[in-house]
């Protein structure tokens, strides 16, 4: 039982490049989330999904897109990376909106 | 609106000292309350939770009691260890689609 996995673990991009972060969960959870964590800023919600085929904006959605084509996967895309997107990105899933969230190990992204 | 406020860190303690990390919340209805812990280089993981007033969550020697009258969910441990060094997040689940996280409190425990 792997829980929540994230790919890749580390990535360095140049300004303007694009990339996709993959999150996968094997707990059959309906809800999935993408957060970013920056020093002194805590966790900020980027986008979330309440089920397959649905997505919604969180607190800081600008510059990111997401897709939830399969229930177990939640993809986060950066179309044109900017240095301000240098951060650690965490994916999480939960059974419902009030239950425990299960987090992946994170992706450390640096944009030069 | 819904919000969580927790004490700013860092908190530095010697091994075997008593730990309190304060957390207060603002919410409508009857939220669930959580403490998550993040060890260096890892994602957050649930430490304990409470789903109704007066419930006490406990795990690994940590405890927190859901106090509706004071809207608080303070984290306590009687004797901390070096291995407890981490960042602790208080969080609120309100029945909407999201969990509200506090800003996190970093704990350093010295041997």
Task: Give your account of this protein's structure.
The complex is a heterodimer of chains A (112) and B (111). Chain A is built from no helices and 11 strands. By secondary structure, chain A is an all-beta fold. In chain A, the strands form 2 sheets. In chain A, strands 2, 4, 5, 6, 9, 10 and 11 form a 7-stranded mixed β-sheet that branches. In chain A, strands 1-3-8-7 form a 4-stranded antiparallel β-sheet, with no helix packed on it. In chain A, a hairpin with a 3-residue loop joins strand 4 (31-38) and strand 5 (42-49). The mean pLDDT of chain A is 94. Chain B is mainly β and 111 residues long. Chain B contains no helices and 12 strands. Chain B has strands at residues 3-6, 11-14, 19-21, 23-26, 32-38, 45-50, 56-59, 62-65, 75-77, 86-93, 99-101, 105-110. In chain B, strands 2, 5, 6, 10, 11 and 12 form a 6-stranded mixed β-sheet that branches. In chain B, strands 3-9-8-7 form a 4-stranded antiparallel β-sheet, with no helix packed on it. In chain B, strand 5 (32-38) and strand 6 form a beta hairpin. The termini of chain B are far apart. At the A-B interface, strand 5, strand 9 and strand 10 of A face strand 5 and strand 6 of B.
Instruction: Tell me the overall shape of chain B.
Output: globular
Outline of chain A? globular
Mean pLDDT, all residues of chain A = 94
Radius of gyration of chain B (CA) equals: 13 Å
Provide the low-confidence segments of chain B as ranges.
none
| Radius of gyration from the alpha-carbon trace of chain A, in angstroms | 13 Å
Largest sheet of chain B: 6 strands, mixed
Strand content of chain A: over 45%
Q: What amount of the residues of chain B lies in strands?
A: over 45%
In total, the number of strands of chain A is 11
Question: How widely separated are the two ends of chain A?
Answer: 36 Å
Interface with most residues: A-B, 24 and 22 residues
Count of runs of 4 or more consecutive helical residues of chain B: 0
Q: How many DSSP-defined strands of chain B? A: 12
């Amino acid at each position: 039982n792997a829980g929540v996995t994230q790919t890749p673990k580390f990535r360095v991009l140049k300004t303007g490049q694009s990339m996709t972060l993959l999150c996968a969960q094997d707990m059959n959870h309906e809800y999935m989330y993408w957060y970013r964590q920056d020093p002194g800023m805590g966790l900020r919600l980027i986008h979330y999904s309440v089920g397959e085929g649905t997505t919604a904006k969180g607190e800081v959605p600008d510059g990111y897109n997401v897709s939830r084509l399969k229930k177990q996967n939640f993809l986060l895309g950066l179309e044109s990376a900017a240095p301000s997107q240098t951060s650690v990105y965490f994916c999480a899933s939960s059974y419902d909106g009030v239950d425990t969230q299960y987090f992946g190990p994170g992706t450390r992204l640096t944009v030069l | 609106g819904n919000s969580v406020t927790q004490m700013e860190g860092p908190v530095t303690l010697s091994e075997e000292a008593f730990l309190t990390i304060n957390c207060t919340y603002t919410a409508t209805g009857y939220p669930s309350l959580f403490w998550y812990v993040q060890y260096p280089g890892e994602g957050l993981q649930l430490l304990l939770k409470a789903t109704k007033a007066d419930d006490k969550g406990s795990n690994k020697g940590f405890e927190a009691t859901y106090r509706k009258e004071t809207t608080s969910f303070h984290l306590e441990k009687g004797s901390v260890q070096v291995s407890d060094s981490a960042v602790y997040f208080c969080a609120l689940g309100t029945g909407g689609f999201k969990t509200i996280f506090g800003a996190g409190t970093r704990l350093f425990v010295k041997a």
